Amino acid sequence: MTELPLQSKPSNSGAKRGLSHTGFILVGITGGAAVAISAICLPFVSPALRRICLPYVPATTQQVDNVLQALKGRSGTLVDLGSGDGRIVFAAARKGFTADGVELNPWLVVYSRFIALTQRLSAKVTFFRKDLWKFNLEKYDNVVVFGVEQMMDKVEQKFIAELRSESVIVACRFPLPNLEPIAILGHGVDTVWVYKNAAITQFGS
């Protein structure tokens, strides 16, 4: 009897290798996307100001409205310290202010400048990538600050040293610790405190 040659069984190793290769590709794609998303989002929640950990928290619509109400009847120059995505600066510019934003986070500065271009506000607003503690405030008629409790005493001292007597300060989320506001608007996290710098100058003398 003639023996027939043995036929080997089909191997699944090639298919397995193909599936493994495909799996690695999918893992690489999804992992890369996750890294990219993290790289984009992380700077938006990282500290915006040195010395004090101040994460990026966008102002609510009510907070913006309260700030504008606090500045009703005012004009001239305005600076938002820790301007984030620029929404206070844009709102002020639309009301006729020459408005600047000071923000340490480079991604937020780039984003704000881009929005200024798309909304045709570039001629009315300027965004500075600066540490607020090193940014001089003497030319500003109006100052807005969204701070955390730990920084308010220090920033109050900066206002006393640099602002003109006729300047107005709008503090959001936390009040200045040693001064009496001339007005308080809103409730809860949307509260804003309004100060006339004449009182601050007298306090600091």
Key features?
205 residues, Rossmann fold, 2 domains, 6 helices, 7 strands, disordered N terminus
SS field, number of helical segments: 6
How many individual β-strands?
7
Helix content: 40-55%
Strand content: 15-25%
Domains counted in the coordinates: how many? 2
What's the CATH C level of the largest domain?
Alpha Beta
CATH superfamily of the largest domain: Vaccinia Virus protein VP39
* Second-tier CATH architecture of the largest domain: 3-Layer(aba) Sandwich
Assembly annotation: single chain
Terminal Cα span = 118 Å
Q: Quick one: biggest sheet?
A: 7 strands, mixed
Query: How would you sum up the global shape?
Result: globular
CATH topology of the largest domain: Rossmann fold
Alpha carbon gyration radius: 27 Å
The largest beta-sheet arranges its strands as 3-2-1-4-5-7-6
Helix/strand-derived category reads: alpha/beta
SSE topology string: HHEHEHEEHEEEH
Task: Describe what this molecule looks like in 3D.
The protein has 205 residues and is α/β, with parallel strands linked by helices. It folds into two domains: 32 residues; 144 residues, Vaccinia Virus protein VP39 (Rossmann fold, 3-Layer(aba) Sandwich), CATH 3.40.50. The protein is built from six helices and seven strands; from the N terminus they run H-H-E-H-E-H-E-E-H-E-E-E-H. The chain has a seven-stranded mixed beta sheet with strand order 3-2-1-4-5-7-6. Strand 2, helix 4 and strand 3 form a beta-alpha-beta unit. Helix 5 packs across helix 6. The protein is globular. The N and C termini lie far apart (118 Å). The N terminus is likely disordered.
